[in-house]
Amino acid sequence: MSDSDDCDWFDKDEDALMRDFERNMKAKEAERMEEHIKVPTNTLDNYIKELTLKASSSHTKKSGNANKKKCNIAELRKINALSPLDQFLYTHTMEYDFYSGQLQPNDSQEKVILYTSILAAICRLELPGFQKPLLQAFRDNICLQEHLRLLLAKLFCKRFKDMWKQQEDMEHLLENIELLFIQSYSTKTTDVGHDREQDMLKDLLKILDKSDNDLAVCKKYKNRLKENLQGLVNNAKSSETSTWEIYPTIDELLNDASQCNGEDMTKSLLPVQQYLNRHMQFLKEDFLLPLRECVKYVKSSASQCPDNFHLFDDVFIVLNEQFLDANRHELLFVDILGSRRNLDDDGNTNIPWEVQEKLWKIKSGALLCFTTSRDFDNLILATVTYTSQECLKEGYIGIEIARQHNIGNIYKRPLLMFETPAFFEPYHNVFNYLKNCNSAEFPMKQYIVDEEHPTTAPKYLTNDTLYQCNGQKFHPLRESLEKDTLELNPSQLEAFSKALKQEFALIQGPPGTGKTYLSVQIVKTLIENAETPLILITYTNESLDKFLVKLSAFTENIVRFGSQTRDQRIAKYNVKDVVEHSLINPKLKRLYYLCSMEFKEAFGYLQQKHREFDGTDKSYGEILKAQSKLAEVSEKLRTLKTMFQYYVAREKSIIGMTTTCAAKTNFLFRLLKSKIVIFEEAAEILESHIVACLTPHTQHVIMIGDHQQLQPYTSNYQLQQKTQMNISLFERIFCKHPNPIVLRTQYRMHPKIADLLSNTIYKDLDSDESASHYPAIRQMSTNLFFMNHNKPEAKAEQDSSLYNPYEVTQVVQLSLHLVQNALYNVEDIQILSPYARQIEMIRKQLQQHPSLQALKACTVDSFQGLECNIVILSLVRSNSTSQIGFLKQSNRICVALSRAKHAMYCIGNLDLLSQCSTIWKEIAEKMQDHKAVGDKFPIESENYFYDK
């Protein structure tokens, strides 16, 4: 079709169909005519005229649109042939606005379909910062919507059945129409826009209701469209979820009333949008609850300070005076010293040590709260963007203002400042993903929402697919590897086979059963055979580094996202280092430059509005509007920065990151079209965080973890108990599966130690014979012992954490014996305790002995996934009120008792523990059977000192 044909709505064949349609329509009654298509007049010709009138009217209202350059058919075909990312870059770096005024009422059907295809492809990328303007442009484009309404009417009318001869093209068109309407109409509009859009939805539903096209494919799409469009109508009536924000208002901070209804999170089987809304609600409440406690403390000036809370007073928000030369992250700062800033005689900044210590703990991605007084009459929320050592030493933190309430001038005035107790970035990233994701394309819905049992194979696998592993060829859907190919035990081999052929595979690995070894073999096999980048996601940076080190023995084709690696062997895979040596699309560089200039302009405009602030509501509104614009441009820049990293990632076989990083780069997975996602430590990850790592391209999910060990972290115990928010997606699905995959042979613990967990926490946990051959512990009569006592616990004045002075002394004395008398290296010994205060007290005592200064002590939770030859476990709780706190939790008991390889020495009030917990009672009985309980550690030395 030539460009000159753009003015014809139909080609010749369609003209004939239209004339036949009009002749038949004139012969029938008006009500019969309406069964085919919702038309405002008596003929389709008049309908098209009215459509033309509406669209023309919408165009004339927009000044200058008529004079804008239009994309012709040839250019649209060229753009449509590009990849979605290249479509995005091409259309955003054009000399004219691709997203506005491109269609006329008399444009050809091909032009409309091409334009719609391009918009939908870019929309599917869901690029933060760019998605909202795109959807707004669609909502404003009445001409395009009228074109799509007419196309929909034709597709569902049997007289236009010939359109379905290109069935694949028509299905793609319907999916594009559905996507654009669902995504754009899900966001809040003005009342006027709302009414117009509700009318459009009703018109579309009427078309579907009156459809007389009996093709099977038509019926399928009719039902799907009706469900999703009706969902939009219902949401508009009953919910304002599109206006939800993770940023709290003043009222939300001061209001104690929970916004959660207390519904059990493990009860799914909901419509997708309701499922998403529920998780958004719980995420926000989990973030708000500890923050409200901090606000109460600030308002009351109470002496009892919340844990890990610090209030900075008399701070200033200051503008970089070198604004024109500054980078984006260097424009706005918090001056911690404020009006107290002064320099000593040497010109150095004088910051008290205790303030400096707190300052260095604030990380990029944190949310800071500011107010002018303890009454909280106003509020400023700012995210931390820049924490260089140079700035921190001078007492500055780079920030971006996110929200402000009841305050106009924010610069160089004394402010109170504190960080939110819950680290903001993961909440923000996951919440925004849930809010903006397309519910119509929700990945793995059948398992996550509908709770079907996973049995289906990944779509990229067929019965003829041939894999190769260590020289052996096999068909993963039809046969398993031979047992000796990868040196796997029977339960590992079963798990390996099912992981390859189930599109949603869950593997439980109790402590020491070789989860990581199995995971490495699965990843190695997949990257050698499946032609797709593999996304590897873990809960912690330590686990990610550990996993990538093992994988690096097989491949160097790895990239690691995030900057928290502590292992130098992994540093060379960091995306920041690799991106400098990669070829980058020049259009991306141009767009980044354009957005950087846009940011400078928006920031300058915001400063102007601050200077002009006169205290009126109008002036304050202008500040908020300018601030909102700046935030939008800032989000664009963050997105473009990740795009630079995409050009690195697309060449790699393995892309590793933590869940925190993954949630904010979901669109990266869309760009990569990655089919496989593997989660390590899956049982420790919140369900919403798992969901935020998936895309419509995801065809294969493998989750490896152990729900009997640590559960996902939530900030509030009461909310957790009420909602079961700490039940992971892994645990929820695993526990309902009739035939779960479980690793059953452990290699870590001496059998006497493993016996404590067998049948108390795990069923059918066997020990490999190799674990029986560990050496005896020098100068100790046994390798398993519980020193029972009744010496009381204590509580620190400044926080709620507990410690036990008696146990501190005994643990340090035992450590001295093992190092000085039994001649063990400090690397062979690990001290654990459930309580942070106890660890702090033990570390202080260790520092008093030169031979123990390098001995490691940490909390049980932070040692999850790790092991040591000799573990000394201090349990702390000992009181007359029969309280043992979270030592009742089977998950923490499991982790605490499963870290030791050769020997484990526990100290605590075993009588109290047994009285308060059936699990501890069973463990005590097993200890008694092993003759491993007494009031003294089993020392074989006359030099050992006991503190009575």
TrEMBL record:
Annotated DNA2/NAM7 helicase helicase domain residues: 487-713
Alphabetized Pfam families for the sequence: AAA_11 (PF13086), AAA_12 (PF13087)
One annotated GO biological process: regulatory ncRNA-mediated heterochromatin formation
Gene3D superfamilies per record: P-loop containing nucleotide triphosphate hydrolases
SUPFAM superfamilies referenced in this protein's UniProt entry, alphabetically: P-loop containing nucleoside triphosphate hydrolases (SSF52540)
Molecular functions per Gene Ontology: ATP binding; helicase activity; hydrolase activity
Location of the DNA2/NAM7 helicase-like C-terminal domain: 726-909
Record-level GO cellular component terms: chromosome; nuclear RNA-directed RNA polymerase complex
InterPro entries listed in its UniProt record: DNA2/NAM7-like, DNA2/NAM7-like_C, DNA2/NAM7_AAA_11, P-loop_NTPase, SF1_C_Upf1
Keywords for this protein: ATP-binding, Helicase, Hydrolase, Nucleotide-binding
Protein name (record): NFX1-type zinc finger-containing protein 1
Organism name: Musca domestica (House fly)
